[in-house]
Amino acid sequence: MTSSPAGTAHHGAGIRIGFQRNTPPFSYAPPAAGRADSGFRPIGYSVDLARLVLARIHGGDHLVPPVEAVEVTSTTREGLLSAGRIDIECGSTTITEARSQRYAFSRPIFRTSHRIALKGRPGVPPAPGLRVVGIEGSTSQAALEGHPDLGFAFTFVGVPSIGAARDAFLHDDRIGALVADEVILRSLMRGGAAAAGVRLLDVRLGGEDYGFLLRKDDPEFLRAVDTALEEVFASDAYPELIRSWFRAELPGLGFGLEMDPEDDSFVSAGSRRNVGLVPVPGG
User: Which of 23, 28, 59, 251 has its CA at 20 to 30 Å from residue 161's CA atom?
Assistant: First the structure.
């Protein structure tokens, strides 16, 4: 998805879509695509899903208005949407009751749970006073702090983005663990930048749905997005989307997630639209 003049897709001029840079496989900018001379050109599951949705809304790829990819983070996405700097955010944003009071969400596009990545040898319990880094104000922080008994004491260290959390976990010796959404965490822990001796704790901290984030002032656009998503999930294009981003090697990263296409994380035409948390099975 390339940069181009801004506007609003549903009014015919163009559309500005918010994507994150460091959330593979949902949206990310590989090193080659992140050069200053190439602009922000994200790729990923959510990027392709947004493209398919726009094509169905507008009647074909060739009829989609110009699209501008705008870089957002978990800290900036809501403010940019409220300010009209983006028209929709397509990434890995959790559908929550609190956010649904302020914004509109599409039907779910993915299901996940929170996990904790821990430094150290298997079988060795976390040290007292474990410092766990994560995104400040995130649902991962809430899930961590709301868990009834993890079996160890910890101190949460909040940072503004998943990229900052990853860097702190990999390079700061004072940080012993990282809490994040499971699929994003698995991707961050693989490849050449991953730290040796990192493991995921067995415990899952709840479950949740991701959705596209929109403003509440355009219910017609929301209905169009939901209808298009339902059609995409029921189409032959959706299994290929899963294969490309959850089984095959991720472009520019040198590894794949090798997830089972039958996993309950993957939504289908029968998925309900909701703002609740959906339990994720173990495995």
Answer: 251
